From TrEMBL:
Domain of life: Eukaryota
Keyword ATP-binding: yes
Any one biological process term the GO annotation gives: photosynthesis
Enzyme class: transferase
Pathway: Carbohydrate degradation; glycolysis; pyruvate from D-glyceraldehyde 3-phosphate: step 5/5
Keywords: ATP-binding, Glycolysis, Kinase, Magnesium, Metal-binding, Nucleotide-binding, Photosynthesis, Potassium, Pyruvate, Transferase
Name of this chain's protein: Pyruvate kinase
Organism: Paspalum notatum var. saurae
Length: 527
């Protein structure tokens, strides 16, 4: 375990805790991923979500068809246009998810100590005695005594719509289970999770590939959330598939760690993926409760040191039905920030929750407060020590830019980048000030047509803590004469001034390439 990232070196005046926080253009450095669905797909609601701080919109294909999600995406585009807020798109695959389909949507009552049969015969109607599932190999994978969880899709954990089962016996393809708690399964779709059991299904199914090809490719998705990632090979296979789809060769893959199998192969998965999503809902079932915090802290530390974005899920479950989070949830969000999370992912809270906008706003405010007491000095020293010497050229420049910004108390770091890598490396050192990533488009060709890169790189920084992108004019190359660089810098400074991040007499650290050299410079603004 590593020492805390909480900074409370001086005795804090308790009354100061009650002082209202100052308004800021950036609600928080920590990003928020919102899942769009029935309660969050109107232009007004999505616009409000963007203004509240959502920077990545997640489309979960475990439910709803491509046409439904396309309609929501078109609405998102309208909201982006009206709010002038950039937002990235994440496609979440179904993966080897086991589901119980309740076609009639009639509530199913299950009584403690009773029995229920899980069957692969999906023609049967779901009832209190039989639950049809979408996998015919379950009987082969389970033995008596195994634990199974069945809950409403995107369950929050606080509902009475989830049930624990214990396998009593296996009869052919059917699994007979003892019901451990009284519950009512309400809704049309339930997920089924077998604790610490290997499910022999591909991580990227044929249905997933079809969705990626027919929906993901035309919409040029920024992120692919690879559900139930269990091995590094899962990520390699997904990347190979994306590379065949032209525009998706730049799409970043976020490995979703949802079970013990993924946990056991975490290091090699991290090395292969572009980022990690800690799916604490399913992990909380697979792991003993007392081990969940330990995995979170260890996994986030590994992601931070690798410079790869880490996303934490399932933080304010109760806000699905309530306007305020519980005390434990509010503390949990803050601890995720102090542990090093780049982004908080909201699922049921925004998809079917009653208060999607208020949830994003509340989470953003908690993140902003936690960031104020984040021990940046300790974190910086630890990261530099971990990276070791000799540093790579780019790593050296990035760490120097952050150190300079801290020493001169700069209000912002401006980084000129084409690939986004330099800006992400700066963000890796968690500077206490925002990093304005000025993405310079590059001209490329596929022999048939010319096009500019840059939009992908800009949107993909929307999931990185502290990184705020701005797409520059393509007529100004990233590596150029001082004259053209100065004109782009002026645009970036004007953007910073307009947003209230930069004021007169502020100091700004600029990281850019001039010819073959990388330069870190400090500028002080006039009136």
């Amino acid at each position: 375990m590593h020492s805390t990232n909480l900074l409370l070196e001086e005795p804090i005046r308790m009354a100061s805790i009650l002082e209202p926080s100052k308004a800021s253009f950036f609600p928080a450095m920590t990003k928020i991923v919102g899942t769009l669905g029935p309660k969050s797909r109107s232009v007004d609601t999505i616009s409000a979500c963007l203004k509240a701080g959502m920077s990545v919109a997640r489309f979960d294909f475990s439910w709803g068809d491509a046409a439904y999600h396309q309609e929501t995406l078109e609405t998102l585009k309208l909201a982006i246009k009206s709010t002038k807020k950039l937002c990235a798109v994440m496609l979440d695959t179904v993966g080897p998810e086991l589901q119980v389909v309740n076609k009639s949507e009639t509530p199913i009552s299950l009584e403690e100590n009773g029995t229920v049969v899980l069957t692969p015969h999906q023609g049967q109607e779901a009832s209190s005695s039989v639950l049809p599932i979408n996998f015919d190999g379950l009987a082969k994978a389970l033995t008596p005594g195994a634990t199974i969880f069945v809950g409403q899709y995107l369950f929050t954990g606080s509902e009475t719509t989830s049930v624990w089962l214990e396998v009593s016996e296996v009869k052919g393809d059917d699994v007979v289970c003892i019901i451990k708690n009284t519950a009512t399964l309400a809704g049309s779709l339930f997920t089924l999770h077998c604790s610490q059991i290997h499910i022999d299904l591909p991580t990227l199914s044929d249905d997933d590939k079809d969705v990626i090809k027919k929906w993901g490719a035309p919409n040029k998705i920024d992120f692919l959330s690879l559900s139930y990632t269990r091995h590094a090979e899962d990520v390699r296979q997904a990347r190979e598939y994306l590379s065949k789809l032209g525009d998706l060769s730049q799409t970043q893959i976020f490995a979703k760690i949802e079970n013990v199998e993924g946990l056991n192969h975490f290091d090699e998965i991290l090395a292969e993926a572009d980022g990690i999503i800690l799916s604490r809902g399913n992990l909380g079932i697979d792991l003993p409760p007392e081990k969940v915090f330990l995995f979170q802290k260890s996994a986030l530390h590994k992601c931070n040191m690798a410079g790869k974005p880490a996303v934490v899920t399932r933080v304010v479950d109760s806000m699905t039905d309530n306007l305020r989070p519980t005390r434990a949830e509010a503390t949990d969000v803050a601890n995720a920030v102090l542990d090093g999370s780049d982004a908080i992912l909201l699922g049921a809270e925004t998809l079917r929750g009653l208060y999607p906008v208020e949830t994003i706003s509340t989470v953003g405010r908690i993140c902003a407060e936690a960031e104020k007491v984040f021990n940046q000095d300790l974190y910086y020293k630890r990261t530099v020590k971990y990276v070791g010497e000799p540093m790579t050229h780019l790593e050296s420049i990035a760490s120097s830019a952050v150190r300079a910004a801290i020493k001169v108390k700069a209000s912002v770091i401006i980084c000129f980048t084409s690939s986004g890598r330099a800006a992400r490396l700066i963000a890796k050192y968690r500077p206490s000030m925002p990093v304005l990533s000025v993405v310079i488009p590059r001209l490329k060709t596929n022999q048939l047509r010319w096009s500019f890169t840059g939009a992908f790189e800009a949107r993909q920084s929307l999931i990185v803590r502290g990184l705020f992108p701005m797409l520059a004019d393509p007529r100004h190359p990233a590596e150029s004469t001082s004259a053209t660089n100065e004109s782009v810098l002026k645009v970036a400074l004007d953007h910073g001034k307009a947003s209230g991040v930069i004021k007169s007499h502020d100091r700004v650290v600029v990281c850019q390439k001039v010819g073959d050299s990388s330069v870190v410079k400090i500028i002080e603004l006039d009136d």
